[in-house]
Structure formats: C-alpha cells, structure tokens
Amino acid sequence: MKAKAAKRVLLALVCTALTIALGACAGDKASENTSRITIGIPQDIEDSLDPHKAVAAGTKEILFNLFEGLVKPDSDGNLVDALAQSHTMSEDGKVYTFSLRSGVKFHDGSLVTAEDVKYSLDRCADTSSGASLVPAFSAVESVDILDESTVQVTLKEPDKDFLAYMDAAIIPAANKTPETNPIGTGPYRFVSRSPQENFILEKFDDYWGTPAHIDRVELKIIANADSIVTSLNGGSIDMFARVSQAMTEQLSDDFEVLEGTMNLVQAMYLNNQVEPFDDVRVRQALCYAVDPKEIMDIISDGKGTQLGSSMFPAFGKYYLEELNDLYPTDYDKAKELLTQAGYPDGFSFTLTVPSNYQQHIDTAQVIAEQLKRIGVDAKIQLVEWESWVSDVYAGRNFEATVVGLDASSLTAPALLDRFHSAAGKNFINFSSEAYDEAYANAQAAADDAEKTEYYKECERILAQEAANVYIQDLPCFVALNKKYAGYEFYPLYVQDLAKLYLVEE
Amino acid sequence: MKYFAKKLAGFIATLLAVSFLVFLAFAVIPGDPATAMLGTQATPERVEALREEMGLSDPLAVRYVRWAADFVRGDFGTSYSYHIPVTQMIGDKLPVTLTLTVLSFLLIVCISLPLGITCARRCGGMLDHVIVVANQIVMAVPGFFSGILLTLVFGLILHWFTPGGYVSYRTDWWRFLGYLFFPSLAIALPKIAMTTKLLRTSVLAETKLDYVRTAYSRGNGTKAVLYRHVLKNALIPVMTFLGMALTDMVAGSIIVEQVFNIPGLGRILLTSISNRDYPVVQAIIVCIAFLVISINFLVDLLYKLVDPRITIE
Amino acid sequence: MLDVIDLNLEFHDHLVPETVVYDFDLHMEPGEIVGLVGESGSGKSMTALAIAGLLSRHDMQKRGQILFEGKDLLHCRRSELRELQGDDIAIIFQEPMTSLNPVYRVGPQVEEALRIHRPELSAEEIRQRAMEMLKEVDLEDAQRVYDSYPHQLSGGMRQRVMIAAAMICDPKLLIADEPTTALDVTVQAQIVKLLRRINREKKTAILFISHDLSLIRQLCKRVVVMQGGNIVESGTIEEIYEHPRMAYTKKLIAAIPGYEKKYDSGEPNLRQNEILRVEDVRIRFALERHSLLEKRKYKEVLKGVSLTVREGEVLGLVGESGCGKSTLAKVILGLEKPDEGSVFHQSQRPQMVFQDPYGSLNPARKVGWILEEPLRIRGGMTGQEKKQRVRFMLEKVGLEEKIAERYPRQLSGGQRQRVCLAAALMLGPRLLVADEAVSALDVTIQGQILELLFSLKKEMGLAILFISHDMRVVYQVSDRVLVMKDGLIVESGDVDDVYFAPKHPYTKELLAAAALQEEKGGERDAGTVLS
Amino acid sequence: MMGAILTGVMLLFVLVGFFWTPYDPEAMDRSVKLAGVSLSHPMGCDNFGRDILSRVLKGSGTTLLVAVGTVSIGTACGILLGAFTGYFGGLVDEIFMRINDALFAFPSILLGLVFISLLGSGKYNVIIALGIAFIPSFARIVRSEFIRCKNMDYVRSARLAGAGDLRIMFVHILPNIMTVLSSSIMIGFNNAVLAEAGMSYLGIGVQPPDASLGRMLSEAQTYLFSAPGYAIFPGVVLILMVLGFSLLSEGLKE
What we know:
The complex is a heterotetramer of chains A (505), B (313), C (531) and D (254). Chain A is of the alpha+beta class. Chain A has three domains: 101 residues, Dipeptide-binding Protein, Domain 1 (Dipeptide-binding Protein, domain 1, Alpha-Beta Complex); 102 residues, Periplasmic binding protein-like II (D-Maltodextrin-Binding Protein, domain 2, 3-Layer(aba) Sandwich), CATH 3.40.190.10; 209 residues, Dipeptide-binding Protein, domain 3. In chain A, 28% of the residues lie in helices and 23% in strands. The longest helix of chain A has 23 residues. The termini of chain A are far apart. Chain B folds into two domains: 71 residues, no CATH class; 221 residues, Orthogonal Bundle (MetI-like fold), CATH 1.10.3720. Chain B contains twelve helices and no strands. The N and C termini of chain B lie close together (11 Å). Chain C is of the alpha/beta class and 531 residues long. Among the domains of chain C are: 71 residues, no CATH class; 166 residues, P-loop containing nucleotide triphosphate hydrolases (Rossmann fold, 3-Layer(aba) Sandwich); 65 residues, no CATH class. The two termini of chain C are 41 Å apart. A six-stranded mixed beta sheet of chain C has the order 6-7-8-3-9-10, sandwiched between helices. In chain C, strands 15-16-17-13-18-19 form a six-stranded mixed beta sheet, with helices on both faces. Chain C has a four-stranded antiparallel beta sheet with strand order 2-1-4-5, with helices on one face. Chains in contact: A-B, A-D, B-C, B-D, C-D. At the A-B interface, α1, α4 and α10 of A face α2, α3, α5, α7 and α8 of B.
C-alpha cells in the first residue's frame, strides 16, 4: 500500500513536469495594438542613469534617446539645434548665447525653463568631486540667464569647437534622484528596468520634435555573445547592433544585415615608455609586419576600413587616406629595422586584451600569427575589463594592448588630445615635442582650415612616429528583423531608436 | 538542545568564514569599484575622491566589521553599479535561481527514481544494459555542452521553446516555468545519470541482505519486497548524494544561466564580480553559502528521519 | 506432513557445477521436532532454505521432491508457494541482528505475515494478535518492543521477535536455522525452552538446524547428521547419542566440550612473581541519544575491577556479552584509558588475539608483511633475518611458508587465527590476552587452535588472560577463573572450586545454563570420552 | 574493460597531440575558413581557418594536463587534511570541518577568479585554482574512511606492536582506503575536466590562442549553424575522455 502511494506521487510529478514543458510552447507575445520591438544589447546599463555621470559607451548610446542638450548631433555628424531654437557664438569663440525653444516638456510633463538649463550646465561644470563632472566643462567660466528664453555661456579661453560639448543633457532641477529615475526631454521615456534582464522605454507622446514611431522598446540583455545568434533566429530579439561578421552568415533570412562603421580606432597600442617599444624603429618594424588587410579578411571577410592614424572616415575633413599605405607589409624591412634596433632574432612581449571584446581577441590572435613571421613572439593575455581599465588604462603597466578607442564628441581633439604628452589619458606615454607643438597650434588656430591642417599634421606625426600599430575602424553590422526598418548609423557611439518603424505589410 | 546550539554555531562560523574569504578575495583582485564606475574617464584624483566617498580607502578590517554589522541588521547596502538596494536586487533574482534548482531537483527525483528501480528489478536484462550504458555517457556530458545541444535541437530545430526568450515570472508564471524546463534539464542530466546508477547499485546491494530473505519468507512477492522493504533502505546512500548534488547545482546553474541567457543569481554574480560591485557579490555569495549549508543541514535531518540507526551526535 | 524425497541441489554460478546436497530424504509427522546437525558447509542451511522455498536463485539447480501436505513445493507455481510461505511454513534465521528490516519498527514487521495471509482481519485485530504474540514469546513490555526499532533491542529479544513474527499465522512447520548460535549461553537456554513450549502448546513441527549436538540433544526426538552434503546417519536421539555408528558422528560427540581438563598449563610452581596487576579500574561511556531532548546519559562499564596475573598462569575471565570483559581487555592493554584505577605491567609489549580474525589482519597487506611489521617497528634486524624469523614463526603455528605470500581474505578462519597468533608472539611477549579468540570458529577447529596455543604457551612460558562467554572452554583452559557480571567480578578462585562449588548465584545460573543436559548438580560427567 | 580500452585510446590521442599535429594548431589559413569535414581537414576548420583536429589534439592535452594537476593537488591535500581530522578528531577536526564547509560552499568560479587575477591566467594557475576547489570533497571522503578504519582491530594490533600514530595512519590505514579513494579520484577526474571546460567557457580558464576543449566549445557556439562540426568534435572528444575514465573507475572498483 505504501509503495503504491509512492509510485502515484512519482507519476504525478512527471506529469506536472511535462505540462510545464508544453506550457513553454504556448503562442508568441500577445499582440495588442501597441507596436513593440525587442532589441538585444551586450551589456546591462551598469552605469548610473544620470546623463552627466554616465561613462560607459553602452549607457550613453541608450541615454541618447532619453536626454537632449541644447544642440544635438544628426546622423551625418553635424550639430543641430535641439532645446535651443538658435545659437550664436561670439567673434573670439569665448561666449555662446542660446535662445531656448518654447513649450518643450520634460517626461514628467513639467516645462523646460532657463533655470533648468542653468542648473544642468552648472552641474556639469561643478568641480566639488575633484575635476568637473563632464571633463570638457572645466573650460566653462560662467552660465548666465539673460532672460526667460536666453542663456549665455562664457568660457575661460576661446574655443571654437566648444559647441560640440553643448549636447550635454538638460535635466529638471526638481529631479532629486537622477541616478535611478531619469527624466529628460528625449523621444522616449524610461519605464522600468530589471538588472541583467531588460530595460524598457516608452514613446514620449508630447515630444517637441518629430515623435518616435514604435510605442514600446524593450532592451533585452544578452550577456553571452554566443547566444546572440540563437536568440535572433529563435525570435526572442528583433534587433542586435554590432554583431560579428561570422554571426551575420548564420542569421536566418528573416533578418536584414545593415553595414556601417563602428567609429572606433582599433590599433595595437604600444606603451612607448617600455623597452623595446621606446625605440621608434621597433615600433615601425611592427607596423611593417602587421597587415591590416589580412586581419580584416580573416575576421570580417575583408569588411572594415583600414586606418593609418588615430582618425576614422566619419570625421570627414580630418581623415587622411594616404597614411594607410605608410607601412606596406614588408618582412625584410621589418627584420632589418629590428636588427638595427638590436633585436636581430626578434623578442617576445605580452599582448594584453580585454576578455569581453571578441573582435579585439580575434585581431590579437591574427597579429600574433603575423608577428611570428619576423620572429616576434606575442603572448596573448586576456584580462577582465575592470582589470584592463585599472591596470592598463589608468595604471599604464602593460607592454601592448589591442583595443578600440571611440570619440566622446564630434571634435578632432576627442581622438587626438590623448597623445598630447601632458594629457591625463595618455596611457601609451607617447611624447613628442613636434606633436605637442602641432596640437597647440591647432588649438589656438582661429580659422577652421588652419585648424584642420594642424590636426592633420598631428595625425602624420603619429603615423611616422609609429606611436601605435593602427589597424581598422571595425565594420559594424546591425541585424534587424525585416518587420522593422529605419535604422540609421551615427558617427558617434549612438543608437537612435526614434527612427525605427514597423514596416506595414 | 546542545546539538542544535552546536550546529547553529557551526553554521554562523562558516558563514562568517565565507564572507571574510570574499572580502579577502576582493582585496586581492586588481581594479576597484571606483575605477570601475569611472571607466575610461578615470583620472587619478577623481578615483581618489570617489574612493573616499565610498569609504573604500579605510583598512580592510574596518570595512569588514562595518559590513558585518550592517549585514546582521539585514541592510545589505546598495549596489555600486545599479544604485538600487541589494536586498531588492537579490529578492528579484533569487526566485529565478531557486526555481531553476528546485525544478532540476524535481526532474532528478522523478526520472532517476523509477529508472533506478526498474533497472535494478530487471537487473541483467536488455533494458538494464541500455540504461547503464546511457548513464555512463550522459554522466560525461558537461552541463554547458548539453545546454548547447538542447538549444540546438529543441530550440532551433523543433521550436519547442524560443531560445533566449526568457519570460520573467512576474509577467507570465507558466511561460516562465516553461522556459526554465530545458535549462534545468541541462543541469539535471548528469545528476540524473549519477543518481540512477547509485540507486541501482544500492538496491542490488540491499537485496543481498538477510532481511530481504525474511521478507520473502513471509510470502511477499518481488514487487512488494522491492517497494516496501528495500526502497527505503536503498534511498539512504542516494540521499547523501542528492544533498551533495543539490549544493553542486546551485553553483552549476551559473554556467547554464549563461548558456540559456537567464538573469538569475549566477549572472548577477558574474557581472558584479567584473564590475567589482562588492555589496552585491558579498550578499550573493553569503546567500549561496547560506543555501548550501541549510541544504546540508536539511539532508542531515532527513537522514535521521529515514534511518533510525543514526544517533544524534 | 512433510516428505523430502531425493533432494539434490547444484550450484551453477562458476564454471564447474558444484553439488551441495546429495539425495536428501526426510519425513516429518505433524508436531514432531527433528534435528539436523552438521558442521558449517555441510549443506544443512541450503536444505532448510530449499524446504522453505527461498532458493529461488536462478543459478541453483533443484532436483527431487519436497512434498508438503501432498503438494510438491519444488515444482508448484510461485503464487501457490507464496500462499504457504509465512502461513503454513515459517522460518527463523541465525543472525537476528540483520534478519529484521533496520528502518521499520518491530510491530509492523511482526504483523506482516498476518496482513498478507489474513486480509479479512482489520488493522486493529492484527495489532491485537501481534501484541498477544509478543507476550507469548515472553517479551514483558510488548508495547515498548512493538514501537521500538530492531537496533534498540538485544540479541535475545530480537530472536524472540523473529519467533513471534514466524508464529503469527500459527504455521504447521517452523524451520529454525541455527537460531541460537549468535546468542549467549543463558539466552540460548531460554530460546530452546520457548521453542519446546511452542511445540507442545501449538503442535508446530520444528526442523531444528544446528552445529551444536548438545543443543540438539535438549530439544529433538529424532536427528539427522549431515557431512559434505550427504546424510551420514539418522535415528532417535538416544540411538545417535548413546552408540553412534559412523566415525564422523563419534567425532562430533567427542568434540562437545565436557568437563575434563584437556590442556595442562605446565609446572604450577613457576608462578610466583606477578606479571600484571589491575587495581580498582573504573570507566564509563556516553550513551547514544535517540531523541534530541534526552539529556546525555552515561553507562558505567567497569565499576572497580582488580585482578593479578602471575607468570606462566592461565587466568580465565568469563561473563556474558555486555558485562565489560572486552573493555577490560582494552584497558589492560592501554588501548582505552580508565577514568579511575591503574594497570601495572611487569612485562613489556603484552599482545592480544581478537575474536574476529578477519578484522584483526590488515586486509590490504600480505601475511608476510603483517608478520614482519612488529620486527620492522622494533628495528635492528636485516631483511633476511626478518624473513627467517617469519618462516620460523609460521612453521611454529603449523602453517606452510607460502602462506606469507597470501592476503588475509584468501585464508580460512582457522588459518587466519593461526596468523594472528604468530603475529602476537613475534616479539616474544610474556603476557597474551585472548579475547574470545576461538568463539567464531567451528568446534573441531577450536580444538586445534587451543592445542596450538597451549603448546606455544608451555614452550614460551606465556601467561594468558583467556576471555570467553563459553563456560566449558574456559573450564578446560584456565587454572584460575574470574566470573564477571555488569562490570564487576562477582566470583574468582581456582577453576575447580568455582565450577563445582560456586558461591555466587550468577555463577550458578551460568553453570546451570551451560550444563543443561548434565545430571543433578555439578559432579563430573563420566560421559563416554573417547581417545 | 571497455573503460581501459577507451582510456588507452584517449591517452594515445593526447600523447600524439603533445608531439605531432597534422597542422600547426595556431596556423591560420584564410582559404579554409569554417571549412567542413574534408580529407585534408578530418574535423574541418574553425573561424580562423585553423585545423580543428590539431587544435583538438592540443586541446585535449591541455585539458588532460589541467585535470591531472587538479586531481593530484586535490587528493594530496585532501588525504593530509582528511587523515588528520578523521584520525584525531576533537577540536582540530571541528575547525578543519568548518573551513572545509566554507570552501565547499564557496562557488568554485569565484575561487578560480581570485587565483587567476592573483597569479595571472594560464594553464598552471587554473590547475592551482581548481586543485584548491577540489580539496574539500576529497578531504571529506578521506575523513569518513579514516573514521571507519581507526577503530578496526588491525589498527589496535598495530598499536600494540608499537606503531606510532603517523605510521598507523599512512602505513596501515591508507592502503585500505585506496579502493574507495581510487574511485573518487576517477570521479574527481571527470569533474576536473568538466570544471576546466566550464572555466574556459566563462573565459577565465586557459587563454587563447592555445586551445582547451572548454574554450573551443565556447567559441564554437557562435558558429553552431555554419560549422556545427566546430562544436561537436571537441564536445565528443571531451565526452569520450570523461567516459573512458569513468568506465575505468568502474573496472577498478570491482
């Protein structure tokens, strides 16, 4: 009798397990009238949601849809008026005046006032926690409200490019918890988020500009790169930005693959203070040995744009195509340079790579292969992102690393300022008077053409000095379900969700 | 009562040991929350300012005591990266990992018990050989590999479930359980094989003992002897194994969560480790340790219930 | 009632089929008690299991017929056999410890046969019958026994439970396979008395299987003697006992330890100086607690024991299991620290021989290595000398040299005990403690080992502390004897004084139980002692 | 028996891997990127155009090395810890058991990460990390065996013959627990192989470009559709290796 009961219990348990499994196959999402899209993102927004404090590119990319500054970049990279109706810059580039657009609302319904604008800009310049919250704002002298709808910003020294920084987010002074409850003026409103799971946005109906098309956007975190393809094909996500070339080959045909550039300068950054990379001939030898074309063929079937210096094509006027051919692949020359530098039979060094970027790991492996041909042994060492940031980037104790650096704003300094010998972020310890001088001239130059020329001069020096082994601006593939369209690439690390729309069959 | 007191003391000692180990671990791992939060904007002064603000620059011992004091009061602190109280985060994610573990435990019990017994009953028969060989193979399959295979076969070919289509339990309970079915199967598979093998050998061992002969002498049929007399004895060694398997599964689910893209405690643990989000990691590990130890304690108690010969030492 | 005709049992599990029982015939009338005697390995248990229908193993070939009330049990369908099992035919086994299911309470196990064969009875009636049965087998506190678990009962009580479980359906035939071998002498006597009462009151026929002829004599009318699977001789108990015809039967009878001193222990005058002195030793152990709430209780195992052993003397220590004699042995040898009292050794390195020879030899090591171990520890001998000493010792205990290469599990019980002896005597100790050294062996082998022990004793001038629960063996062996009960020595003195003029009532009870079949009082039994 | 053959084949497979591989496991050849099974590449090629067969040969070597290293550390320390706590008991036992529980409850992933970041990544540090994570389970098994054996009669007769505690522990008791230990070593072996694969899967185990079966499996998941072979072959080799050892441990037990 007891045995019979035990068997019955077991059977019951098995049935429940089966019904659960069948439950799983129940139909797809209930289709109400609201249009919705699920977008996969590789990392959760582990940064603070406060636009002024957000640091990670992944966060800023999304916050672009929630917040707007006085001006705003468009898909071609020029600055367009946003909260400001119009703006004027003083002759010497020291004073910027903005006249505010009227009737613009925050997500909580309150109207945007001059006080909010002043509060936001002062907040960026606030130096209470060491340096200014947004580094560029350290140049701000004062922010004054001229009248109800005009605000004036005065700089310490003239800087014609300062307008680029005016895309800093304007937030309501009343919002006491910007960290967890983001309120801005963007086309989408923040709804909710659950750590490591999703981040939900909703269309902001009284948006001042052209409203967004899709009502509800769910950003689903796919932490494991390997399950991106399975999730796309499985139908649990409709879009994923920056898929690798290999993944694009495996997508089912109800996906369209859009191609753009990642807007990153991927290079093998060399620590110019560490032996043997302190010798320019060794660095040049490496440039001769590394063949960016072969890297692009193996990793992304030839896609991607080759770079010769720290600039990518999206910054049109500054980009120098000819620097790409400065170091044609030539193993004998490379060996000759090495022997001159005192390394006849090559040397070995550690190539540190952050473990969460598969493209950089793949590139490093190809580079290691290529360097073997000139007797140089590159030992790859994967480190966790945090260790990379604190050891390599902040601590500067590394020999070489493969990583991609993006531009935080649409200005040339965003990519070149770092190599200035006194720059705080000069983690490769590059120092050349010629470069410092050219950079200073560029900063001081009044008219634009002269400024561009000096910046180009900087790029040439970087290339000749072989500060780093420049490789490519990685191709950026976006997988988008054919039900949707309207994705636009930006020169900045930005995802403009407002432009997406449902293709009505 | 002394027994309980001793067990409790042991309990707390282990928890403290574990939490201190975590603190030690973080003191050793390079990189700290301040640089993590500042990312590429980290300039030395800003890092210093932030460290000061978060109280990270005080010595390890002070930080540990402060943490322990808060912990006892139930305040696990706020997460550095999410800025939401850790208790809420864990509260939100714990049910996911718990359901995953319980579901796989259920799978193990439902599948391996009947399998083990039929295997032992038809010992030496065709079915027995097939199951034994299958067991050996399944035991050798690593959790994540079976995960990949299950996703491939059931997800993409048979479309029994949408891979990556995790549905939170708040939105739809059934679909949540439905989705977790295959990941728990991936976790449970090697354990099912192990349990079946263990049960089969222990049932065979028990049938050789004298009390089984006495049971037959009283007129019991084979089925009655097997289920009424032998099963309870044979379950004892299986229970210790299940206890160990359960603790193993709690840790094992971390990998499967990765394969099936499930936002459970494992995923939060991994990302928080790489973000150097001390309070979250601290709380999760102590939580897992608590879970593991209480499971062991439960298995001990259950052990005493089933086998009266065990005395309370 | 029962007719076994030409029963042949053959084993088929290893290559060559091995016949275990040859042409076994037996006839039993209802209510009759028949004894089946033989040494271990004579096939008596196999026959019993065959009759009880428990030899269902597929590797056993059964020929012949077992007719029970006309029905042939060997060739009937399993369901028919199952109806009889537990109802008309019942069986009890030798090891009460393992014959009960350890994880269930005693009550339900006693009721089980009733639940199977009397479905019409209600649970309450079944419980009632079980309680009555437990009282009938002289278990006073039936309720407590009903609710307790098997491991909480003593050996004797467990065997009574087995009998109750067997008798619950009032069977016509009860097979008792060595029911008393594992029990103490006094308990053995009570079980035999119980079986006789059951036969008388319930007219149950009993097939009593044992290797102890003296026990068979107390209970059975007819007896069948078996050796190596065949019946050597059968007849009424008087015929077999008074004038046995076959040599093997004679040998069995002679092996019953009677009251004649078999082993003289050398010159008495040598024994002046003391070799061991034990003064007022007390020790207590923490009792296991069964429920969480019980306060921890302690059990006094030794309550102030003093004794002395003189050189070359054989001191007997007799007492039932649980009286603390093994603990005393461990205390004497320093393996347990007494709470109070002290132990003084004049000789160094006293040695001990244990009861279970298999446990006392390291299973993972060869015999040669085990014997060399004491020499290796003492050191000062080359490899060759050690080998030589081992060969010498093996030969002294009557084993060939090649035994050194074997593992303990490859030796018989007798051989293993000889190796233990050799190991103990390696370092030439002056004192040897033998704790139940021979009780696990067959009667005939017991004789050989004792023979060997005493020849070595004389040769090496050993003093022996001989511990056993078997009164007769102690009598044959010791010069002086101590009787122990519940941690106290109740009587001591010269062996003849204690055995034939016992003062303490407990000694009398022990003697009475051991010498059940003797005539009045304790005078020497003249019994036919041959050779 | 089957186990012995299978393990033999696997060991041969690994040994070959140490010395000779059809291609240089790290040599990249664009032309055969993600090529399917072919005569020249019996197991096809991976996304870098590297021959999978040679990488599997090398990889199984690394995985085996890591597993053997881990198990030997785990067993050695496990025996020492288990022997002393089991044999002596008392306060020492209590403390060690507490530490043991703590280590047991500690997710091995974090332990791995601590050591990896402490000593840097690479095969040898993974061995140390996993080795330490395996000590508690071995210690627990050895301890229970020692408790079982310490009050057997042969231990008493050894003590009577004058053997000291250490001699009794390691000369008398240890050989007796070898059978139980050997089967748990085999099981430990399987778990070590699986744990290494798990660690590499999470990216904190063996570093590229050298291959371990776990790392290959994790990289292969992205190419599941276009080159399923890339995931299946290492997986099958992994399973065969683990299967061989578990069958071997079965055989040993009899």
